[in-house]
Design a protein that fits this description.
elongated; 6 strands; 31 helices
């Protein structure tokens, strides 16, 4: 191998005398010591190449000390110049396990060479003279997880069991991460359950696996178990805060916040990541005031901090506050808005129908901040135009988009056509585009189309839509609502009778009906079942919507002055929206509902959305 030595500026030369007597161990060991010392002081690749050249000239190829020197040279090169490390490695006749691991680790740490890490591992396995050890597999599994290389990961799993490392804690943690990343939560859980010994990392990686897979209840149960063995650290808390956000588990989220403050650990209290998670959690749990408190007390913020609070205000329909915080971000000047920031701003405009303002921010993003709009930005703007009744402008925007509109954009257009009583022909054309879009087929599209036909009294077509759903095996997504009382989540489906307090719940609903009648309430049947029914059948269906059952449970069990917080998987219907406004006035209670699209805060007979949603 020819080595080119390029002197650094100023060069630090290594001077070593080659022994004339090859059997002179004293001289050889002296050279070895000097080379080891030089490697310890090595600062850059220029010096390393000099040392490598001297090693080639002054050492015996098969001496045991030479192998050690090459392992040190390889280790330094692997973190500084991977190509050079490869050349060094290929020069070694019989690399040992440490050398193989060094190269595998270097490849697994580099984004562009993770696939090479797997290939080097396969070479190592084929190399009969050397065996992988417990340090080999975490590097390989990390590369497999990054590449979603499930098949290669399973092969590595088989190899590590073959070599007796199935009970190694560090390797098992890597396996859990691999399987969770590749969407095999059952395999990740199996590895975790079979572990004879678990570290703090084991619990954290399994909890995070549940959170990332949307299994929030399982994450919280595991968190409770973990506390019997370990005190939660920052990684644990961040995962659990994220689970609370998606579950709407406000009481547990508040407990974690209090736990962090009680610990008085500066690393936790001032952590930007944890505080960002808290802001997002409070926003998603319907407590915008607490989200603001956390945001305002943060000693340091990044762009995610600003995005979280802006998106929170947008989700709650507080467009003015969202735009005010955007102005604060711009005025501070040390952090610049990014693509997600403008998603938040455009969403805020969308939830309040600020058509002109939304267009101005879209232009500002492109012209002043040079941020190219992506599908999500166009989706916000299309929805803004369509929901405000500017359907022609929305269609023009869709036609001129530089990318193909997805099913979400077409569905927002169909929803607007349904609400704004657009022409039947236009609604059918939009529905056709949805069915032709990738991932566009869902029950919501059929429901919207059936409403379009129902509004035109085309009941035969309504029946055909329903038959088409049956033929394709598509069922309407059931409405589901949850409410948290004393830290326990209660879940309801439409018409649910499984709750222990069912009798009392339906008693409250009867009382609600009587009091609504006394003030002249008339039901809105426009979003009742898909077929033409008698009015009393429709009314019975409406009164059993899942959010009404949850609200009734809240009236039964929550103390006066405590807001009723309900989380619903679908958009709230027109009638439930009107009824909830009236309930808030009749029972003098604040009701906060998070549906699929946004938050609604009902108080004194009105809603924060101002009937625009």
């Amino acid at each position: 191998m020819v080595v080119s030595v390029t002197p650094s500026s100023p060069p630090q030369m290594v001077s070593i005398s080659k022994s004339t007597n090859k059997n002179d161990d004293i001289s050889y060991n002296s050279n070895h010591s000097l080379l080891v010392s030089s490697l310890s002081d090595c600062k850059d690749m220029s010096q390393l190449k000099q040392i490598h050249a001297l090693t080639l000239r002054t050492t015996l190829p098969h001496h045991y000390n030479t192998l050690f020197l090459y392992s040190r040279i390889l280790h330094f090169a692997s973190s500084a110049d991977l190509d050079y490390a490869y050349r060094v490695f290929e020069q070694i006749e019989n690399p040992n396990t440490f050398m193989w691991n060094t190269l595998i680790r270097a490849c697994s740490h580099n984004v562009d060479t993770k696939e090479q890490a797997i290939k080097v591992f396969h070479r190592m396995v084929e190399h009969a003279s050397v065996l992988p050890d417990k340090h080999t597999f975490p590097f390989v599994l990390k590369a497999c997880a990054y590449l979603f290389a499930l098949s290669e990961g399973k092969q590595a799993h088989g190899q590590l069991i073959k070599h007796g490392f199935g009970s190694d804690v560090y390797i098992s943690n890597s396996l859990i991460h691999l399987y969770a990343t590749c969407g095999c939560l059952d395999l990740a859980e199996k590895v975790f359950d079979n572990m004879l010994e678990r570290s703090m990392v084991s619990w954290n990686v399994m909890i995070d696996a549940f959170v990332q897979s949307g299994e929030f209840d399982s994450a919280l149960k595991l968190f409770v178990q973990m506390q019997n063995l370990f005190e939660p650290d920052g990684y644990t808390l961040q995962s659990i805060i994220n689970a609370c956000a998606d579950l709407g588990a406000l009481s547990l989220g508040m407990w974690i916040n209090a736990y962090i403050l009680r610990k008085s650990d500066p690393g936790l209290v001032s952590s930007v990541l944890i505080n960002n998670s808290l802001v997002e959690m409070y926003c998603k749990c319907g407590s915008l005031e607490l989200a603001q408190q956390v945001f305002e007390r943060m000693p340091k913020r990044d762009i995610t901090s600003w995005n979280s609070i802006i998106l929170g205000f947008a989700m709650h329909g507080k467009a003015e506050a969202a735009l005010e915080y955007f102005d604060r971000l711009v005025k501070e000047g040390n952090i610049f808005p990014n693509s997600i920031t403008f998603v938040g701003v455009l969403s805020a405009c969308n939830h309040r129908g600020l058509v002109k303002k939304g267009g101005e921010f879209f232009d500002l993003m492109i012209r002043s901040y040079k941020i190219p709009p992506v599908l999500q930005h166009y989706g916000c703007l299309v929805d803004l135009f369509a929901r405000a009744g500017h359907i022609d402008e929305a269609l023009d925007l869709v036609s001129n988009m530089p990318m193909k509109p997805d099913a979400v954009i077409w569905r927002s257009l169909l929803d607007a056509c349904c609400k704004k009583n657009a022409s039947l022909e236009l609604s059918e054309e939009v529905a056709k585009q949805i069915f032709e879009s990738e991932g566009g087929v869902c029950s919501g599209v059929y429901v919207l189309l059936s409403r379009v036909y129902a509004s035109a009294s085309r009941w035969n077509d309504v029946g055909l839509v329903r038959k088409l759903m049956t033929d394709k095996g598509i069922t309407k997504e059931p409405g589901c609502s949850s409410i948290e009382i004393d830290g326990i989540a209660h879940e309801f489906f439409a018409g649910d009778t499984s709750h222990p307090q069912t009798k009392e719940i339906y008693g409250v609903l009867d009382e609600v009906d009587e009091r609504l009648k006394s003030i002249g309430y008339s039901p809105d049947y426009s979003q009742a079942p898909m077929v033409d029914e008698l009015n009393n059948g429709k009314q019975h269906s409406l009164r059993l919507h899942s959010e009404r059952l949850a609200i009734a449970l809240g009236i039964l069990n929550l103390k006066p002055g405590i807001p009723i917080r309900v989380f619903k998987n679908l958009r709230v219907c027109n009638d439930c929206h009107e009824v909830t406004k009236l309930i808030s006035r009749i029972f003098n209670v604040e009701i906060i509902v998070r549906d699929r699209a946004r938050f609604h805060r009902f108080k004194d007979g009105s809603c924060s959305c101002m009937d625009y949603w």
